[in-house]
Amino acid sequence: MSRLDVEVIVVGAGVMGLATARSLARNGREVALIEQFGLGHTRGSSHGGSRIFRLSYPDATWVRLAQAALALWHELEAEGETLVERHGSLDLGDWEANRDALAASGIEFEVLGGGAIARRFPLELARGETGLFQADGGIVRADAALRALHSSAIASGAQVLEGTRVTSMQPDDAGVTVAGAGVALRADAVVVTAGAWARGLLEPLGVALEAEPTRETVSYFELATDEPVPSLIDFAEGAGPGQLGYALLAPGIGLKAGIHHTGPATDPDEVGAPDETIAGRTADWVAKRFRGASPLTRRETCLYTNTADESFVVERHGRIVVGSACSGHGFKFAPVVGERLAALATS
Ligand SMILES: Cc1cc2nc3c(=O)[nH]c(=O)nc-3n(C[C@H](O)[C@H](O)[C@H](O)COP(=O)(O)OP(=O)(O)OC[C@H]3O[C@@H](n4cnc5c(N)ncnc54)[C@H](O)[C@@H]3O)c2cc1C
Protein backbone atom coordinates (compact mmCIF):
# COMPACT_ATOMS: atom_id res chain seq x y z
CA MET A 1 0.00 0.00 0.00
CA SER A 2 1.42 3.41 -0.99
CA ARG A 3 1.11 6.29 1.48
CA LEU A 4 0.99 9.96 0.68
CA ASP A 5 0.71 12.91 3.05
CA VAL A 6 -0.47 16.24 1.66
CA GLU A 7 -2.25 19.36 2.96
CA VAL A 8 -5.45 18.86 0.97
CA ILE A 9 -6.95 15.91 -0.90
CA VAL A 10 -9.57 16.63 -3.56
CA VAL A 11 -11.84 13.69 -4.40
CA GLY A 12 -13.18 13.78 -7.97
CA ALA A 13 -11.52 15.30 -11.03
CA GLY A 14 -14.46 16.72 -12.94
CA VAL A 15 -14.36 20.44 -13.66
CA MET A 16 -14.96 21.38 -10.00
CA GLY A 17 -12.21 19.15 -8.62
CA LEU A 18 -9.73 20.27 -11.26
CA ALA A 19 -10.51 23.93 -10.59
CA THR A 20 -10.17 23.40 -6.84
CA ALA A 21 -6.88 21.50 -7.11
CA ARG A 22 -5.49 24.18 -9.44
CA SER A 23 -6.47 26.95 -7.07
CA LEU A 24 -4.90 25.14 -4.09
CA ALA A 25 -1.69 24.37 -5.96
CA ARG A 26 -1.36 27.93 -7.25
CA ASN A 27 -1.63 29.11 -3.66
CA GLY A 28 1.32 26.94 -2.76
CA ARG A 29 -0.63 24.14 -1.10
CA GLU A 30 0.37 20.50 -1.38
CA VAL A 31 -2.63 18.90 -3.04
CA ALA A 32 -3.53 15.46 -4.36
CA LEU A 33 -6.50 15.09 -6.70
CA ILE A 34 -7.97 11.59 -6.86
CA GLU A 35 -10.19 10.37 -9.72
CA GLN A 36 -11.87 6.97 -9.95
CA PHE A 37 -11.80 6.89 -13.77
CA GLY A 38 -9.45 8.52 -16.31
CA LEU A 39 -9.49 12.29 -16.78
CA GLY A 40 -12.03 13.37 -19.40
CA HIS A 41 -14.16 10.21 -18.95
CA THR A 42 -17.81 10.30 -20.02
CA ARG A 43 -19.51 8.83 -16.91
CA GLY A 44 -20.02 12.06 -14.90
CA SER A 45 -21.09 15.64 -15.61
CA SER A 46 -18.14 17.45 -17.19
CA HIS A 47 -17.46 15.66 -20.51
CA GLY A 48 -18.15 16.87 -24.04
CA GLY A 49 -17.09 19.80 -26.17
CA SER A 50 -19.19 22.67 -24.82
CA ARG A 51 -21.36 24.17 -22.10
CA ILE A 52 -23.43 27.35 -22.16
CA PHE A 53 -21.73 30.41 -20.77
CA ARG A 54 -24.10 33.27 -19.94
CA LEU A 55 -24.26 36.34 -17.76
CA SER A 56 -28.03 36.35 -18.18
CA TYR A 57 -29.60 35.03 -14.97
CA PRO A 58 -32.81 36.04 -13.21
CA ASP A 59 -30.90 37.19 -10.10
CA ALA A 60 -28.05 39.71 -9.84
CA THR A 61 -26.11 37.41 -7.48
CA TRP A 62 -25.78 34.84 -10.26
CA VAL A 63 -24.93 37.57 -12.78
CA ARG A 64 -22.05 38.76 -10.58
CA LEU A 65 -20.86 35.19 -10.04
CA ALA A 66 -20.83 34.62 -13.81
CA GLN A 67 -18.86 37.87 -14.27
CA ALA A 68 -16.32 36.71 -11.68
CA ALA A 69 -16.06 33.33 -13.41
CA LEU A 70 -15.55 34.97 -16.81
CA ALA A 71 -12.60 36.97 -15.50
CA LEU A 72 -11.05 33.76 -14.15
CA TRP A 73 -11.65 31.86 -17.41
CA HIS A 74 -9.84 34.67 -19.22
CA GLU A 75 -6.98 34.39 -16.72
CA LEU A 76 -6.72 30.66 -17.50
CA GLU A 77 -6.89 31.39 -21.24
CA ALA A 78 -3.79 33.54 -20.83
CA GLU A 79 -1.93 30.29 -20.04
CA GLY A 80 -2.93 28.72 -23.37
CA GLU A 81 -5.96 28.48 -25.65
CA THR A 82 -9.34 30.20 -25.95
CA LEU A 83 -11.91 28.61 -23.65
CA VAL A 84 -14.91 30.95 -23.77
CA GLU A 85 -16.37 31.69 -27.20
CA ARG A 86 -18.53 34.80 -27.31
CA HIS A 87 -21.51 34.13 -29.59
CA GLY A 88 -24.12 35.73 -27.33
CA SER A 89 -26.96 34.28 -25.28
CA LEU A 90 -30.61 34.49 -26.20
CA ASP A 91 -33.46 33.94 -23.75
CA LEU A 92 -36.95 33.32 -25.08
CA GLY A 93 -40.14 33.32 -23.06
CA ASP A 94 -40.18 34.66 -19.55
CA TRP A 95 -36.97 36.77 -19.66
CA GLU A 96 -38.03 39.90 -17.72
CA ALA A 97 -36.24 38.93 -14.47
CA ASN A 98 -33.04 38.30 -16.45
CA ARG A 99 -33.33 41.73 -18.08
CA ASP A 100 -33.79 43.37 -14.66
CA ALA A 101 -30.83 41.50 -13.13
CA LEU A 102 -28.59 42.46 -16.06
CA ALA A 103 -29.73 46.09 -15.83
CA ALA A 104 -29.10 46.14 -12.07
CA SER A 105 -25.59 44.83 -12.74
CA GLY A 106 -24.84 47.48 -15.37
CA ILE A 107 -24.58 44.93 -18.19
CA GLU A 108 -25.70 45.77 -21.72
CA PHE A 109 -28.40 43.69 -23.43
CA GLU A 110 -30.89 43.98 -26.27
CA VAL A 111 -34.58 43.16 -26.29
CA LEU A 112 -35.32 41.92 -29.81
CA GLY A 113 -38.57 41.30 -31.62
CA GLY A 114 -39.18 37.98 -33.35
CA GLY A 115 -38.52 39.46 -36.81
CA ALA A 116 -35.16 40.91 -35.77
CA ILE A 117 -34.13 37.59 -34.21
CA ALA A 118 -35.15 35.63 -37.31
CA ARG A 119 -33.15 38.01 -39.54
CA ARG A 120 -30.03 37.83 -37.34
CA PHE A 121 -30.02 34.11 -36.55
CA PRO A 122 -31.38 30.92 -38.16
CA LEU A 123 -34.21 30.83 -35.62
CA GLU A 124 -38.01 30.74 -35.87
CA LEU A 125 -40.22 32.68 -33.47
CA ALA A 126 -43.99 32.83 -33.26
CA ARG A 127 -45.81 36.10 -33.99
CA GLY A 128 -45.43 38.45 -31.02
CA GLU A 129 -42.55 36.55 -29.41
CA THR A 130 -39.56 38.55 -28.17
CA GLY A 131 -36.13 37.64 -26.83
CA LEU A 132 -33.35 38.94 -24.59
CA PHE A 133 -29.94 38.96 -26.28
CA GLN A 134 -26.73 39.43 -24.29
CA ALA A 135 -23.52 39.64 -26.27
CA ASP A 136 -21.08 38.23 -23.67
CA GLY A 137 -22.79 34.83 -23.57
CA GLY A 138 -21.76 31.86 -25.69
CA ILE A 139 -19.97 28.67 -24.81
CA VAL A 140 -17.18 27.34 -22.65
CA ARG A 141 -15.17 24.76 -24.59
CA ALA A 142 -15.62 22.12 -21.92
CA ASP A 143 -13.03 19.53 -22.97
CA ALA A 144 -10.41 22.24 -23.57
CA ALA A 145 -11.25 23.76 -20.19
CA LEU A 146 -10.66 20.42 -18.41
CA ARG A 147 -7.30 20.05 -20.17
CA ALA A 148 -6.29 23.61 -19.34
CA LEU A 149 -7.23 23.29 -15.66
CA HIS A 150 -5.37 19.97 -15.45
CA SER A 151 -2.18 21.32 -17.11
CA SER A 152 -2.24 24.41 -14.93
CA ALA A 153 -2.78 22.38 -11.75
CA ILE A 154 0.09 20.03 -12.62
CA ALA A 155 2.36 22.94 -13.53
CA SER A 156 1.65 24.41 -10.10
CA GLY A 157 2.60 21.16 -8.36
CA ALA A 158 -0.69 19.29 -7.89
CA GLN A 159 -0.47 15.49 -7.89
CA VAL A 160 -3.21 13.65 -9.79
CA LEU A 161 -4.07 9.99 -9.17
CA GLU A 162 -6.34 8.52 -11.85
CA GLY A 163 -8.12 5.15 -11.73
CA THR A 164 -8.33 5.32 -7.94
CA ARG A 165 -11.74 5.14 -6.31
CA VAL A 166 -11.89 6.57 -2.81
CA THR A 167 -13.78 4.13 -0.61
CA SER A 168 -13.51 5.79 2.81
CA MET A 169 -12.64 9.05 4.51
CA GLN A 170 -11.95 9.05 8.25
CA PRO A 171 -11.53 12.43 9.93
CA ASP A 172 -9.85 12.64 13.37
CA ASP A 173 -8.44 15.42 15.53
CA ALA A 174 -5.23 15.71 13.50
CA GLY A 175 -6.38 15.16 9.93
CA VAL A 176 -8.27 12.87 7.56
CA THR A 177 -7.29 9.41 6.34
CA VAL A 178 -8.51 8.73 2.81
CA ALA A 179 -8.44 5.17 1.53
CA GLY A 180 -8.95 3.60 -1.88
CA ALA A 181 -7.83 0.50 -3.70
CA GLY A 182 -4.11 0.17 -2.93
CA VAL A 183 -3.69 3.67 -1.47
CA ALA A 184 -3.93 5.36 1.91
CA LEU A 185 -3.55 9.10 2.05
CA ARG A 186 -3.49 11.57 4.87
CA ALA A 187 -4.38 15.25 4.68
CA ASP A 188 -5.36 18.18 6.87
CA ALA A 189 -8.61 18.56 4.92
CA VAL A 190 -10.51 16.85 2.12
CA VAL A 191 -12.61 18.53 -0.58
CA VAL A 192 -15.32 16.26 -2.00
CA THR A 193 -16.11 17.25 -5.58
CA ALA A 194 -17.48 13.84 -6.52
CA GLY A 195 -20.48 15.08 -8.51
CA ALA A 196 -23.31 12.54 -8.60
CA TRP A 197 -21.28 10.22 -6.35
CA ALA A 198 -20.86 12.78 -3.55
CA ARG A 199 -24.06 11.90 -1.68
CA GLY A 200 -23.01 8.25 -1.22
CA LEU A 201 -19.48 9.19 -0.25
CA LEU A 202 -20.60 11.69 2.38
CA GLU A 203 -23.40 9.63 3.93
CA PRO A 204 -21.14 7.48 6.19
CA LEU A 205 -19.69 10.74 7.61
CA GLY A 206 -23.16 11.90 8.65
CA VAL A 207 -23.17 14.68 6.03
CA ALA A 208 -26.52 14.68 4.22
CA LEU A 209 -26.25 16.16 0.73
CA GLU A 210 -29.69 17.20 -0.53
CA ALA A 211 -28.80 16.69 -4.18
CA GLU A 212 -30.36 14.08 -6.40
CA PRO A 213 -28.54 12.67 -9.45
CA THR A 214 -30.52 12.39 -12.68
CA ARG A 215 -29.39 11.03 -16.04
CA GLU A 216 -30.01 13.61 -18.76
CA THR A 217 -30.00 13.01 -22.52
CA VAL A 218 -28.39 15.45 -24.95
CA SER A 219 -28.66 15.27 -28.75
CA TYR A 220 -26.61 16.71 -31.60
CA PHE A 221 -27.71 18.39 -34.83
CA GLU A 222 -26.15 19.64 -38.01
CA LEU A 223 -26.70 23.34 -38.65
CA ALA A 224 -27.63 24.70 -42.06
CA THR A 225 -24.92 27.38 -41.96
CA ASP A 226 -21.48 27.87 -40.40
CA GLU A 227 -22.70 31.12 -38.84
CA PRO A 228 -22.40 30.89 -35.04
CA VAL A 229 -25.69 30.84 -33.16
CA PRO A 230 -26.21 32.28 -29.68
CA SER A 231 -26.68 29.91 -26.76
CA LEU A 232 -30.43 29.58 -26.51
CA ILE A 233 -32.55 29.16 -23.40
CA ASP A 234 -36.22 28.73 -24.29
CA PHE A 235 -38.51 29.36 -21.34
CA ALA A 236 -41.44 29.58 -23.75
CA GLU A 237 -43.73 26.64 -24.36
CA GLY A 238 -41.75 25.45 -27.40
CA ALA A 239 -40.19 22.45 -25.63
CA GLY A 240 -43.50 21.50 -23.96
CA PRO A 241 -45.56 23.03 -21.14
CA GLY A 242 -43.33 24.00 -18.22
CA GLN A 243 -40.24 22.66 -20.01
CA LEU A 244 -37.03 24.51 -20.81
CA GLY A 245 -35.24 23.78 -24.06
CA TYR A 246 -31.57 24.72 -24.40
CA ALA A 247 -29.18 24.66 -27.34
CA LEU A 248 -25.59 25.72 -27.90
CA LEU A 249 -22.82 25.36 -30.42
CA ALA A 250 -20.96 22.06 -30.35
CA PRO A 251 -17.52 22.78 -31.83
CA GLY A 252 -16.72 20.49 -34.75
CA ILE A 253 -20.23 19.00 -34.77
CA GLY A 254 -22.90 21.69 -35.05
CA LEU A 255 -25.53 22.10 -32.36
CA LYS A 256 -26.00 20.40 -28.98
CA ALA A 257 -29.48 20.50 -27.45
CA GLY A 258 -31.57 19.11 -24.65
CA ILE A 259 -34.64 19.66 -22.52
CA HIS A 260 -33.58 20.70 -19.04
CA HIS A 261 -34.07 18.31 -16.12
CA THR A 262 -36.17 15.68 -17.85
CA GLY A 263 -33.99 12.65 -17.07
CA PRO A 264 -34.83 10.01 -14.46
CA ALA A 265 -33.21 9.68 -11.03
CA THR A 266 -30.19 7.45 -11.43
CA ASP A 267 -27.43 5.47 -9.75
CA PRO A 268 -24.18 7.05 -11.03
CA ASP A 269 -22.45 3.65 -10.99
CA GLU A 270 -24.78 2.38 -13.71
CA VAL A 271 -23.64 2.87 -17.31
CA GLY A 272 -26.77 4.53 -18.65
CA ALA A 273 -28.05 4.96 -22.17
CA PRO A 274 -29.71 7.96 -23.87
CA ASP A 275 -33.48 8.13 -23.50
CA GLU A 276 -34.98 7.98 -27.00
CA THR A 277 -38.25 9.63 -25.96
CA ILE A 278 -36.38 12.67 -24.63
CA ALA A 279 -34.16 12.69 -27.73
CA GLY A 280 -37.33 12.70 -29.88
CA ARG A 281 -38.83 15.61 -27.94
CA THR A 282 -35.54 17.51 -28.24
CA ALA A 283 -35.54 16.91 -32.01
CA ASP A 284 -39.12 18.24 -32.24
CA TRP A 285 -38.15 21.37 -30.30
CA VAL A 286 -35.02 21.98 -32.39
CA ALA A 287 -37.04 21.52 -35.61
CA LYS A 288 -39.49 24.15 -34.35
CA ARG A 289 -36.79 26.67 -33.38
CA PHE A 290 -33.77 26.20 -35.69
CA ARG A 291 -34.22 26.75 -39.43
CA GLY A 292 -32.49 24.03 -41.44
CA ALA A 293 -31.06 22.06 -38.50
CA SER A 294 -31.04 18.30 -39.07
CA PRO A 295 -30.68 15.61 -36.40
CA LEU A 296 -27.50 13.56 -36.14
CA THR A 297 -27.55 10.07 -34.65
CA ARG A 298 -25.12 11.18 -31.95
CA ARG A 299 -26.62 11.35 -28.44
CA GLU A 300 -25.10 11.03 -24.99
CA THR A 301 -26.01 11.04 -21.35
CA CYS A 302 -24.71 13.36 -18.69
CA LEU A 303 -25.46 13.41 -14.96
CA TYR A 304 -27.13 16.35 -13.25
CA THR A 305 -26.80 16.61 -9.47
CA ASN A 306 -29.83 18.65 -8.58
CA THR A 307 -30.63 20.73 -5.53
CA ALA A 308 -34.24 21.85 -5.04
CA ASP A 309 -33.54 25.51 -5.94
CA GLU A 310 -30.68 24.85 -8.41
CA SER A 311 -28.20 26.47 -6.01
CA PHE A 312 -24.76 25.03 -5.25
CA VAL A 313 -23.49 23.34 -2.10
CA VAL A 314 -20.19 24.89 -1.00
CA GLU A 315 -19.74 24.18 2.69
CA ARG A 316 -17.35 22.88 5.33
CA HIS A 317 -18.10 20.14 7.87
CA GLY A 318 -15.08 19.90 10.15
CA ARG A 319 -12.21 18.73 7.98
CA ILE A 320 -14.50 17.84 5.05
CA VAL A 321 -15.41 20.46 2.44
CA VAL A 322 -18.32 19.71 0.13
CA GLY A 323 -18.43 21.14 -3.38
CA SER A 324 -21.53 20.12 -5.28
CA ALA A 325 -22.12 22.68 -8.01
CA CYS A 326 -24.29 21.35 -10.77
CA SER A 327 -28.10 21.45 -11.13
CA GLY A 328 -27.34 21.54 -14.84
CA HIS A 329 -25.66 24.96 -14.90
CA GLY A 330 -22.46 24.72 -12.86
CA PHE A 331 -19.71 24.39 -15.47
CA LYS A 332 -19.42 28.07 -16.29
CA PHE A 333 -18.84 28.87 -12.61
CA ALA A 334 -16.09 26.28 -12.00
CA PRO A 335 -13.10 28.64 -11.62
CA VAL A 336 -14.89 30.75 -9.01
CA VAL A 337 -16.34 27.71 -7.19
CA GLY A 338 -12.84 26.16 -7.20
CA GLU A 339 -11.39 29.26 -5.55
CA ARG A 340 -14.09 29.24 -2.89
CA LEU A 341 -13.63 25.54 -2.13
CA ALA A 342 -9.86 26.00 -1.94
CA ALA A 343 -10.32 28.90 0.49
CA LEU A 344 -12.73 26.86 2.64
CA ALA A 345 -10.30 23.94 2.74
CA THR A 346 -7.45 26.08 3.97
CA SER A 347 -9.35 28.46 6.27
C1 LIG B 1 -26.68 17.54 -19.90
C2 LIG B 1 -25.93 18.59 -19.15
C3 LIG B 1 -25.89 19.87 -19.63
C4 LIG B 1 -25.24 20.87 -18.93
N1 LIG B 1 -25.19 22.11 -19.46
C5 LIG B 1 -24.51 23.08 -18.82
C6 LIG B 1 -24.37 24.35 -19.41
O1 LIG B 1 -24.82 24.57 -20.54
N2 LIG B 1 -23.68 25.30 -18.74
C7 LIG B 1 -23.13 25.08 -17.52
O2 LIG B 1 -22.53 26.00 -16.96
N3 LIG B 1 -23.25 23.86 -16.93
C8 LIG B 1 -23.91 22.87 -17.55
N4 LIG B 1 -24.03 21.64 -16.99
C9 LIG B 1 -23.54 21.42 -15.62
C10 LIG B 1 -22.07 21.15 -15.54
O3 LIG B 1 -21.66 20.30 -16.58
C11 LIG B 1 -21.79 20.57 -14.16
O4 LIG B 1 -22.18 21.55 -13.20
C12 LIG B 1 -20.34 20.25 -13.92
O5 LIG B 1 -19.80 19.49 -14.95
C13 LIG B 1 -20.22 19.48 -12.58
O6 LIG B 1 -18.90 19.09 -12.41
P1 LIG B 1 -18.44 18.25 -11.17
O7 LIG B 1 -16.95 18.33 -11.17
O8 LIG B 1 -19.17 18.68 -9.95
O9 LIG B 1 -18.95 16.75 -11.44
P2 LIG B 1 -18.29 15.60 -12.34
O10 LIG B 1 -17.84 16.13 -13.63
O11 LIG B 1 -19.24 14.47 -12.38
O12 LIG B 1 -17.02 15.19 -11.53
C14 LIG B 1 -17.06 14.40 -10.37
C15 LIG B 1 -15.91 13.44 -10.48
O13 LIG B 1 -15.74 12.73 -9.25
C16 LIG B 1 -15.30 11.43 -9.57
N5 LIG B 1 -15.57 10.58 -8.41
C17 LIG B 1 -16.78 10.32 -7.90
N6 LIG B 1 -16.68 9.50 -6.82
C18 LIG B 1 -15.35 9.25 -6.66
C19 LIG B 1 -14.62 8.47 -5.73
N7 LIG B 1 -15.23 7.80 -4.75
N8 LIG B 1 -13.28 8.42 -5.86
C20 LIG B 1 -12.64 9.13 -6.85
N9 LIG B 1 -13.31 9.87 -7.77
C21 LIG B 1 -14.65 9.95 -7.67
C22 LIG B 1 -16.14 11.08 -10.78
O14 LIG B 1 -15.62 10.00 -11.50
C23 LIG B 1 -16.12 12.38 -11.55
O15 LIG B 1 -15.03 12.43 -12.46
C24 LIG B 1 -24.63 20.60 -17.68
C25 LIG B 1 -24.65 19.29 -17.19
C26 LIG B 1 -25.26 18.29 -17.92
C27 LIG B 1 -25.26 16.90 -17.37
Radius of gyration: 20 Å
Largest sheet: 8 strands, mixed
Q: How many beta strands in the DSSP annotation?
A: 19
Instruction: Give the tally of structural domains.
Output: 1
The mean pLDDT is 95
| CATH level-1 class | Alpha Beta
Shape: globular
Q: Mind telling me the CATH superfamily name?
A: FAD/NAD(P)-binding domain
Structure annotation, total helices: 8
CATH architecture: 3-Layer(bba) Sandwich
Pattern of helices and strands: EHEEHEEHEHEEHEEEEHEEEEHEEEH
Enumerate the spans where pLDDT stays under 50 for 5 or more consecutive residues. Answer: none
CATH fold call = FAD/NAD(P)-binding domain
Q: What can you see in these coordinates?
A:
- It contains eight helices and 19 strands.
- A hairpin with a 4-residue loop joins strand 10 (166-171) and strand 11.
- It has helices at 15-26, 60-77, 96-104, 114-120, 142-155, 198-202, 276-289, 334-346; strands at residues 2-11, 31-34, 50-53, 84-86, 89-92, 110-113, 130-134, 138-141, 159-161, 166-171, 176-180, 183-192, 212-222, 231-234, 245-250, 254-259, 294-306, 313-317, 320-324.
- It has one domain: FAD/NAD(P)-binding domain, CATH 3.50.50.60.
- The model has no long low-confidence stretch (mean pLDDT 95).
- The longest helix has 18 residues, at 60-77.
- The structure holds flavin-adenine dinucleotide.
- Flavin-adenine dinucleotide is lined by residues 11-17, 34-37, 44-46, 51-52, 165-166, 193-197, 201, 216, 218, 258, 302-304, 325-326, 328-332.
